[in-house]
Write a structure and sequence with these properties.
Blueprint (H helix, E strand, L loop, with lengths): L1 H10 L10 H10 L5 E4 L7 H11 L7 E5 L4 H4 L8 E5 L4 H5 L5
Parallel strand pairs: 1-2, 2-3
């Protein structure tokens, strides 16, 4: 999934960095904030929700959006995303149009 999204976004003209862990991503975000963060919150052994909450706490003035991908489709599964500013919930499978489109609800 990561390779496909990376290729899709690179073809659309975006520069992409990929991190193997939430901790590595968190460190990089503080040092060099991206234009956007795309993450899978359904990672084994790691809570994507907890990472989003840590990003929000560590970088309260962040200006980049977070796109949180998940295969969970229930309303309760995405309710917590309302608590974090500029976080968009993306249900898998994710289309290139949903990532590249400048329009957000």
């Amino acid at each position: 999934m990561t390779r496909l999204l990376k290729l899709m976004l690179e073809r659309a003209g975006h520069q992409i960095s990929v991190f193997s862990s939430g901790e590595a991503a968190l460190d990089a975000l503080a040092d060099d904030p991206p234009d956007a963060l795309i993450m899978d919150i359904d990672r084994p052994g790691a809570s994507g929700r907890a990472l989003c909450e840590r990003i929000d706490a560590r970088l309260p003035q962040r200006t980049f959006p977070i796109f949180a991908m998940t295969s969970a489709h229930g309303d309760g599964d995405q309710a917590w995303t309302q608590e974090i500013h500029d976080l968009f919930f993306l249900e898998k499978p994710v289309s290139s149009k949903s990532l590249i489109s400048p329009e957000r609800d």
